[in-house]
Specification:
It is a single chain. By secondary structure, the chain is of the alpha/beta class. The chain has a single domain (about 1-230), classed as 3-Layer(aba) Sandwich (Rossmann fold), CATH 3.40.50. Helices cover about 35% and strands about 25% of the residues. It has five helices and ten strands. The strands form three sheets. A five-stranded mixed sheet has the order 4-10-9-8-6. The chain has a three-stranded parallel sheet with strand order 2-1-3. β9 (about 160-165) and β10 form a beta hairpin. α1 (about 15-25) packs parallel to α5 (about 200-230) and α2 (about 70-90) crosses α3 (about 100-105). The longest helix is centred in the C-terminal third of the chain and has 30 residues, at about 200-230. The protein is globular, with a radius of gyration of 16 Å.
Length: about 240
Amino acid sequence: MRALFLQHDHVSPPGPVAEAFARQGFEIVEQLIVPADRYDSPNVTFDHPNPRDFDVLIPMGSPWGAWDDECIGNWLQPELAWLADAQAADIPIFGICFGGQALARALGGSVAPGPKAEIGWHMIHSDDPDFIPHGPWFQWHYDRWTLPPGAVEIARSSVASQAYVVGRSLGMQFHPEVVSSTVEAWLHTDGLPALERDGQDGPALIAMTKAFDEAASQRAHLLVDNFLTRVAKLV
């Protein structure tokens, strides 16, 4: 079995989520859309692979908005069509943050800026804590989705919907793949000003994330296992 991790930027590795898929016997394939030298001009062109070449798709997070056609439309619009095609072909999708937003939009929902950002470690309310624990889960987003037709919301916060199931796919607003090295990379790219505007301290967030690394990785493994057995039905 093959799992495609579609990385939208160069500083967001799949971390413990890829480890969990590999542990279940998946070959891990990673493809990058916006290379490092185009980070400041991300409206690149990208040829999405045939989704039928994979058993599961994992579109990941992004510093750009899943609504922002002007900024990234050259690859965002094809990605929306790609996700809709994959869903129609019954290929499971594990959408993380931007990936969950893009899936919602591709299937007839919408994405727009939310009332406030959610950055850092947050608890969520899960309808099924055995499937998705209440957390804490790492978040870094400014936008939120409206659910597409047929989707069932299964977790939320006071700011945004946090997870939904549609067919054999799962969309999440939080970041199960994040560990402390991810946060360090984001803060060294362009995340620190946004964090400080949110009234937070970078070293404190990194220290907190390091303290959560082991437990967060365990939650990520549990989430992937539950997705594969209960939603995607691949194991």
